[in-house]
Design goal:
two-stranded antiparallel sheet; 4-stranded antiparallel sheet; 6 strands; alpha+beta
Length: about 180
């Protein structure tokens, strides 16, 4: 574990199960807010904890690394992304003439449930690109209604668009077999 102090200098450490150690660096910046740097999906990621209290920030960082070894969740719910996902879902529902009855609380609840990871692949979300969060209709015909949505990576949602989840699983297994990973 890293040593923590209240100075503005970076604090480093390692978290996660033995053999799956995750290195991170915590530091303060803008108005004393604590940030954490770590690697996710081969990329360097910087996240604000949104906290000025060092003990709370440390507890949050430690809890975020305590989940699945395949996933390094982001901190908190990015309300900007939630609003964008909600607006895009409303637009698609209108264009496709399918039911839409979501509120911001419904999407926030699903994002919180995902713990910062795609609910299909387990890959940690990123702010932009193919691994950014996207709303998926579990049963497409039911539309965007509470209980019928989950948060997945954009690339996962795109892959399931025409052929569904089972086809994606079959493809993933075939790729793993072809590369002698299973």
């Amino acid at each position: 574990m890293g040593m923590y102090n209240s100075a503005a200098e970076p604090i480093s450490g390692s978290l996660g199960p033995i053999g799956e150690a995750r290195k991170y660096t915590m530091y303060t910046r803008e108005a004393g807010v604590w940030y954490v740097n770590y690697r996710a999906n081969g990329r360097q990621v910087r996240r604000s904890t949104g906290m000025t209290d060092e003990a709370s920030a440390r507890a949050t960082v430690e809890s975020m690394f305590g989940g699945s070894p395949r996933c390094v969740p982001t901190l908190g719910v990015n309300r900007k992304h939630v609003r964008k996902m909600l607006a895009r879902a409303a637009h698609r529902a209108k264009a496709k003439n399918i039911p839409y009855a979501l509120k911001i609380e419904d999407v926030t609840r699903v994002v919180d449930r995902s713990k910062g990871c795609c609910e299909v692949s387990g890959i940690a979300f990123e702010d932009t690109g193919p691994f950014k969060p996207s709303l998926d209709r579990i049963v497409p015909e039911l539309g965007y209604i509470p209980g019928n949505i989950r948060v997945v990576c954009l690339v996962t949602n795109t892959a399931m668009l025409h052929y569904g989840e089972e086809c994606l699983f079959k493809l993933a297994i075939a790729i793993c077999r072809n590369r002698n990973l299973i």
